[in-house]
Amino acid sequence: MQTLNFKVTGMTCDHCASSLQAALATVQGIHNAAVSYPERHATVAVDAGIEAETVIHAIRAKGYDAQLKGKTPTAHPGKGTGLKVVIIGSGSGAFAAALRVAEGGAIVTIVEAGTVGGTCVNVGCVPSKIMIRAAHIAHQQAHHPFPGVQKHTPQIDRAALVMQQQRRVEELRRDKYESILESNPGISLLRGRARFIDAQTLEVTQADGTVKHVAADRILIATGRSPSIPDTPGLAETPYWTSTTALVAERLPKHLLVYGASVVALELAQAFLRLGSQVTVVARSTLLSKEDPAIGTGLQAALEAEGMRILTHTRVTSARYDGSNFQLNVGSEVLSGDNLLVATGRQANTAALNLQAAGVAVDASGAVVIDSHMLTSVPHIYAAGDCTNQPQYVYVAAVAGTRAARNMLGEDAVLDLSAMPSVVFTDPQVATVGVTEAEAQAQRLDVDSRTLSLDNVPRALANFDTTGFIKLVADKKTGRLLGAQILAAEAGEMIQTAALAIRNGMTVQELGDQLFPYLTMVEGLKLCAQTFFKDVKQLSCCAG
Fold first, then answer.
1. Is 125 one of the annotated active-site residues of the chain?
2. Measured on CA atoms in the order 75, 77, 80, 86, is the torsion positive or negative?
3. What pLDDT band is residue 530 in, cutting at 50, 70 and 90?
4. DSSP 224-246
5. pLDDT at 539
6. Residue 365 contacts by C-beta under 8 Å, 6 or more apart in sequence?
7. Would residue 541 show up in a list of annotated catalytic residues for this protein?
8. Which of 1, 11, 177, 374 is the catalytic position?
9. What whole-number distance in Å separates Cα of residue 299 and Cα of residue 312?
10. Please, is 515 exposed, middle or buried when counting C-beta atoms within 10 Å of its C-beta (0-12, 13-18, 19+)?
11. Res. 146 pLDDT band, cuts 50 70 90
12. What is the pLDDT of residue 69?
């Protein structure tokens, strides 16, 4: 008999550890297993001859991942010398992978059919946050809470804003993508559309019709996503906007209709509202329906207070355009506006890749199915970023690309998303990490939660902006923090503290005992944690 020790990733609570321990006990050849959530560790006694991979496979079958402790990574600079790696796509995940495998000595080819840099820098994070910031400044000039400072409605030059925005986009694309390609001899760019011929070979069709066949030892699929358009009758015949076209529109609509109520829809809807457009949002369900219901309710109230009209649980039955206005039939009425933004989701860019020829599995939506090693159903083909079944965030794509590259070079790198923070850049912002109360209950976890309104946070009072709340979810028995949901003007700057607390297994008592600077919004996390064991209304301003 021998004892093996593993580092386990993906567990979120003690219940995870106990259920994994019970599952390991049923595996033939395993005589004893002890799993610790706080230590992210498993000690397993197995029969002689049982390989560590047998245990790792059993752990992965439960939805977690593991690495044998004491195992020395096999990758090092030069390990990939001569390895031919082809990467389809040129966004953040693709570049992160390319740089890492090139460091290891691999010969890297990036295949890109469109603009280098992918969604984030070109048509996503960067231009949208510039637009949102400009809209925020405009809104503050007319609606700030200080009577001693004269308010005024600013004049908006949308064309000038777009010019500034796109110049910054071009600068970042140049500095962070194009110049890196030029300065790295180990990475070459092949422009064209790729499709699989078999599991080792890609056919790349260039703009002039020339076809090249590229063979690879390792392949990374990082093709991202594109706007998904519903098959609403009449919609395809209208000149609707997607987020891509809305971001560069140089004219502000008088009345913008927005079909959709998720992240992209709401961020852009509020930006246009604050720049001077009338905005009506049509939501098929509720706002941010995948979040804690209080988030959508609170955000809707804030947006409606600014003048946005929001129709929830509403479907568009037909759409038409008469040359100057869009009409959306929603059953109870016909909405009319001079522009229409369709932001009802995004679909993986995989349909043209001929993945079946390589044996790469996709889910029902067309997203590439990968494990925590970024490995697809084919042993030497990896995937990263928005085209996969992982969360659609640029920072997830980047770290997934790096992990995929390390595994191509022989490492055993995993990606643990159990403490992944997310932010929606509305105002107030929405920021979350870990599990919601409903998700915890669905996992049969015994949890407790507390919600702190922002009128209990001194900095929010000093800002004269108490819209929103902080909610924490904790294990009822141990007090360990399992999740945080924040609706606040600076939620995006606050959430990482909660993420680190969850990652390090902190309890709400430990979080509440920490030193937080005064006056800051993040101090609200401390106050919310303290509500698990005291009445914070009875504390002085900065009482510990």
1. yes
2. positive
3. very high
4. -EEE-----TTGGGS--B-HHHH
5. 82
6. 347, 348
7. yes
8. 11
9. 13
10. exposed
11. very high
12. 80
